[in-house]
Structure formats: structure tokens, C-alpha cells
Amino acid sequence: MNATPDVSPQADRSLLIVEDDKPFLERLSRAMETRGFNVTPCDSVSDGLAHIGKSAPAFAVVDLRLGDGNGLDVVSALKRERPDARAIVLTGYGNIATAVTAVKLGAIDYLSKPADADDVVAALLASGTAKSEVPPNPMSADRVRWEHIQRIYEMCNRNVSETARRLNMHRRTLQRILAKRAPR
């Protein structure tokens, strides 16, 4: 456990992360473990639902769109099994209607990707009435753009031509962007 006191009312730090972007799932899992959570990573709705059926965690971070379904099904199942659980929804496809639905199903927050581990912890541990603080060093617009391009590139199995087509940009422009370091 970390040396900072637990600010949540629950001493149970079990966390389910349901995310189909494997590199992001691995990074977030490691980051949350270093912050004192007992993490169970799942890469599909079916795996997430199976884990909840065995042992419903105190916390969950769920991607909205997954390869085998909708992450809101996981949030709904978690709230049925453990009403005091705190779940947040992560998505790269945010819109108001989906955010409202997520909250109605029991999510306590709705974060747009890319969200870092500090944003996730702040959302999970925030009191019900307090709003999460704006991060002191938010990502620059260039960094957000770079993260989005990297995510699409990975989704296209690192195929430059397919990624360029989906992003509606010239292939050589994309190659130059991919060859550079990540902006700060």
C-alpha cells in the first residue's frame, strides 16, 4: 500500500480495468498498481462480466466501445452485483448522450481518452459532491493529437496506409508524424 491515506470510504482497493487497447490496458494497469490498487485487467466485455460474476470489485475503469460489445453493460452488471462500487467510463468517442447514459447506469464519471492514471485516480476517489480538479499540467493539443494518431495506428495493426486513410491525411505526412518524438 502507498503511504498516503485512503481517501475513499472503502478500504477495498480492488480495480477492474476493461479496455481492448492492449498497450493502454497494460500501461494503465501498471500505473494503477503503483497507486495502491489491486488490478484485474480484462480486454473484453465478456471477460469483464465473468470477473464481476466471480468477485465484484470496489472500482472499475471501463472503455465504452469494446470489440465484443458496449462497456456500459459492464458498468450496469457491476452496479447490480455491488451497488457501492465506483466505476468510470473512458472513451475516445465522447458525446453528451452517452455520458448521460453512463451516469444513469451508475458510472461516477466519464473521461475522454487519452486520460492519464492521475486523472483516473482523481475520478475514482473523488467524493460524490466534489468535482475533479483540472490537472495542473494538462496535455497540450499537440500531445492529444499525437496520442490519437498513435491509438489509430495501433488499431490499424501499425499499417501506415490504412491509418492515413482513416485519419484522412496523406501517407507521407503521417510517416513524418510517426517518425518524430511525442510532443510534451
Automatic annotation (TrEMBL):
Family matches, as InterPro entries: ActR_PrrA_rreg (IPR047772), CheY-like_superfamily (IPR011006), Sig_transdc_resp-reg_receiver (IPR001789), WalR-like (IPR039420)
Modification type 4-aspartylphosphate: residues: D63
UniProt-listed SMART domains: REC (SM00448)
The Response regulatory domain, residue ranges: 14-128
Keywords, in A-Z order: DNA-binding, Phosphoprotein, Transcription, Transcription regulation, Two-component regulatory system
Gene Ontology terms, MF aspect: phosphorelay response regulator activity; transcription cis-regulatory region binding
Any one annotated GO CC term: cytosol
One Pfam family it belongs to: Response_reg
GO BP annotations listed: regulation of DNA-templated transcription
Full protein name: DNA-binding response regulator
Organism: Nitrobacter winogradskyi
Record lineage: Bacteria, Pseudomonadati, Pseudomonadota, Alphaproteobacteria, Hyphomicrobiales
